[in-house]
Amino acid sequence: MKIDRYVIRQIVAAMIIVVVSLTCVIWLSQSLRFIDMIVNRGLPLATFIYFTVLLMPTWLSLVLPIACFAATMFVYNRMASDRELVVLTASGLGPLGLARPAIVVGLVVTLLGYLLSLYLIPVSYRGFKELQFQIRHNYTNVLLREGVFNSMGNDVTVFVRARQPDGELSGIIVQDDRDEKESITLLAERGALILDGSDPKVLMVNGNRQSRDNATGRINILYFDRYTVDLGGIREAVQRTVRDQNELFVDELLNPTEQITEPRNFDKYMAEGHSRLVTPLLGLSLPLIGLVIILKGEFSRRGQTIRLIVAILLVGLVQAAVLGSKYAAAKQLGLLPLMYGSAIMPIFVCLAILARQKLRRPQAAEKPPEGTPA
Fold first, then answer.
1. Which residues contact 131 (CB under 8 A, 6 or more apart)?
2. What does the H/E/C string look like for 41-106?
3. For 153, left (φ over 0), alpha (ψ -120 to 50), or beta?
4. pLDDT beyond 50 at 374
5. How far apart are CA 218 and CA 212, in angstroms?
6. Residue 48, Cβ density class (10 Å: 0-12 exposed, 13-18 middle, ≥19 buried)
7. pLDDT-derived band of residue 370, with 50, 70 and 90 as boundaries?
8. pLDDT, tens digit, for every residue of 194-206?
9. What is the CA radius of gyration of the chain?
10. For residue range 106-126, what is the model confidence (pLDDT) as tens digits?
């Protein structure tokens, strides 16, 4: 129907505005946690943006249901104020017919929620954790830290006295014990970090190379104008061994093993897996709650502030119930039905109410009897 397409367009447009606004707020607040990676580790701005964008699916999974509810309430409240709901009701549409466009949008949001929850969140969050680990432990960023002896693996230590704004390094010391036969110490006045393909190298200028034979103790000194130290062999010196819950797919969470986590965390991981299956349903249940409240009973052109407040309170209650039941189920798996009930029950209750109730138009003021003042 044309009216359905009209309402859907209105809801989608409003929802996009809400999603963008909320996501920007979350992005700005969360980005402050990683600002030290630009200040202290010299992280390029493009890499920093990519780093935070990897968290976008996680944020969207939280924002989408709320945005769908807010957009639905805004559009239907505006239609009520403009008396469009009265016209549609007079044309024969009941509450369920009026709610149909919002239900369609809610179903699409729910499907998007499952796409995020089942695939995009674990994939993107795993990329986020891998990049975060590389930034914190990778030779490229560690090397740029000033005034610190940075151990990269068990055999290489790098010290940089100062780093200039143009990237030039001054006061460089490299201790290289990767060769079992000799120990090498390099000192240079200045230099720079360069990347040859994927392997990092340190270009050292005006310095000396001191090598000590581990068998004889003999020391050789070589003075150089330019010397390059290849650090490619330390790439795998540090590796991640533990994965976060958000990096795991649902089947891994529902069937945890000792390779994933300790047995004492099995219930917690299983509760997280069931939460991934439940949370997307809020994309449908939250707007349905708003529809029931705004379409319930007699329509009045006068403000619907009380109904809006009631709808917000009910939505907050449902979200609190879903979140609270998740933490309760993490301690006692027998409480898992509460989690499913908190998200599914509002859907069936709201659909039943919309199917049975009728929207009443406001009663006209009674005409005063003849001869009496109005």
1. 50, 51, 54
2. CCCCHHHHHHHHHCCHHHHHHHHHHHHHHHHHHHHHHHHHHCCHHHHHHHCCCCHHHHHHHHHHHH
3. left
4. no
5. 6
6. middle
7. low
8. 766 556 778 899 9
9. 31
10. 999 999 999 999 999 999 998
Digit-coded pLDDT (tens) for 24-52: 888 888 777 777 666 655 566 777 788 88
Please answer whether residues 150 and 234 qualify as being in contact, where contact means their C-beta atoms are separated by less than 8 angstroms.
Answer: no
Query: Among candidates 188, 162, 164, 192, which has minimal Cα distance to 175?
Result: 188
Cα separation, 269 vs 260, whole angstroms: 10
Q: Are 30 and 91 in contact (CB under 8 A)?
A: no
d(CA 238, CA 211): 26
Residue 14 in this model has a pLDDT that exceeds 50: yes
Q: How many CB atoms lie within 10 A of CB 283?
A: 26
> Residues 211, 215, 216, CA angle at the centre, nearest 5°?
75
Helices (H), ranges, the chain: 2-31, 36-39, 45-53, 56-81, 84-90, 95-115, 121-137, 139-143, 250-254, 266-278, 282-295, 305-331, 336-356
Q: How far is CA 85 from CA 3, 88, 92, in A?
A: 11, 5, 11
The predicted pLDDT at position 144 comes to 55
pLDDT band at 360 (very low <50, low <70, confident <90, very high): low
Q: Is the pTM of this model over 0.90?
A: no
Q: How far is CA 334 from CA 245, 265, 281, 286, 339, in A?
A: 21, 16, 21, 25, 10
Fill in the DSSP letter of residue 238: S
Count the Cβ atoms, other than its own, within 10 Å of residue 357: 15
